[in-house]
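Lecture notes, part 5. Sequence design as translation. It can be helpful to think of inverse folding as translation between two languages: the language of shapes and the language of residues. The source text, in structure tokens, appears below.
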């Protein structure tokens, strides 16, 4: 099966909303209409087989080709070689946080975690019942959310030299912060790239493992892309069942059990779309344009809007902000929804507003939100 028929259509940058709505959801999130059209066709007939996408056997040639194509384009986008495995694991990132701990902490190992987000805390919660957890950085302890300072070259990270790995969440969707480069420690590096995969160039080859659930930049929920060094996952615990071991999934070519075939195909299509757009470099330029528009409004209306995200660590994908009161935040959200700006509510526990503008989100949506924010501040300031 060839993926080439959709490539030409995938080269057009996203522009207009569907049905008059801009979807700022943090995930599942906005998808390109070209990919949705392709999925709609394939639900009826995958690769001119006469059988729909979700009807094909995961061991049949049509799905085997689709999975192989998805792996190939992910390898091109990540730049990894044969020393890395690409695995399509069932479930979202949180499930794979648990798999990570079971593989590497269940026999007395210590995991170092950088606590910069709700999602890092979820990874910590999954690890605690399994093994030892050492929090090497706390970026959520005060009123301001932060990440380790890259100019300190790891000096602000406390990491025992004998730990099994160091875990970080590259982009913190609820807090509105991100790492501008991977943390340094000398330990095997585990990155949760769920919300920022392919949003910018990133050194995948420097990681022992990256985890990226599909529902933000790769389409459908229900599957996670694992890019991992083969020699690292081979060291996983032998005292757990094969369904829990990354190495066993890799050896079985991601069909150790019935995989989420629909999600894997969507991941492949979204990866193709990303490549056709110019890859992470081109996507990064567009993402910077979008996020900088909104951060600029927050800064220009300081006193009306504020953000708890540390300036040096501001995310290029999720802009978080709030007004002076919860009542005014609620009015903002009500009026924004009426203007066709959907899903701007902040994460529970953080509050305020959150504009999530992932790779497929159109620049025009950021322009309209920026104009709305300026007008709202003028009318209510």
């Amino acid at each position: 099966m060839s993926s080439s028929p959709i490539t030409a259509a995938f080269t057009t940058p996203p522009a207009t909303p569907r049905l008059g709505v801009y979807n700022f959801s943090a995930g599942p999130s906005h998808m390109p209409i070209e990919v949705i059209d392709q999925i709609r066709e394939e639900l009826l007939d995958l690769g001119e087989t006469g059988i729909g996408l979700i009807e094909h056997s995961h061991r049949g040639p049509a799905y085997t080709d689709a999975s192989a194509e998805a792996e190939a384009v992910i390898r091109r986008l990540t730049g990894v070689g044969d020393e890395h495995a690409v695995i399509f694991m069932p479930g979202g990132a949180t499930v794979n946080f648990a798999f990570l701990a079971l593989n590497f902490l269940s026999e007395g190992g210590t995991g170092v975690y950088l606590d910069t987000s709700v999602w890092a805390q979820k990874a910590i919660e999954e690890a605690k019942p399994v093994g030892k957890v050492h929090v090497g950085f706390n970026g959520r302890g005060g009123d301001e959310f932060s990440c380790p300072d890259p100019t300190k070259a790891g000096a602000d990270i406390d990491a025992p030299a004998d730990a099994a790995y160091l875990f970080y969440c590259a982009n913190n969707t609820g807090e509105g912060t991100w790492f501008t480069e991977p943390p340094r420690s000398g330990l095997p590096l585990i990155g949760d790239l769920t919300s920022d995969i392919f949003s910018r160039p990133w050194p995948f080859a420097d990681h022992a493992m990256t985890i990226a659930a599909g529902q933000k930049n790769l389409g459908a929920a229900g599957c996670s892309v694992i890019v991992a060094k083969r020699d690292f996952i081979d060291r996983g615990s032998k005292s757990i069942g094969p369904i829990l071991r990354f190495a066993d999934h890799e050896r079985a070519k991601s069909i150790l059990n019935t995989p989420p075939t629909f999600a894997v195909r969507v991941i492949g299509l979204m990866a193709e779309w990303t490549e056709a757009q110019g890859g992470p470099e081109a996507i990064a330029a567009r993402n910077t344009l979008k996020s900088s528009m909104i951060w600029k409004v927050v800064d220009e209306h300081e006193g009306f809007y504020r953000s708890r995200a540390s300036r040096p660590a501001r995310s290029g994908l999720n802009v978080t902000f709030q007004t002076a009161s919860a009542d005014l935040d609620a009015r903002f959200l009500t009026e924004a929804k009426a203007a066709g700006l959907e899903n701007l509510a902040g994460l529970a526990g953080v509050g305020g507003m959150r504009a999530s503008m992932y790779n497929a989100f159109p620049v025009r949506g950021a322009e309209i939100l920026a104009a709305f924010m300026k007008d709202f501040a003028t009318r209510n300031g």
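The translated text above is only one of many valid answers, since several sequences can fold into similar shapes. The first strand starts at residue 22 and ends at 23.
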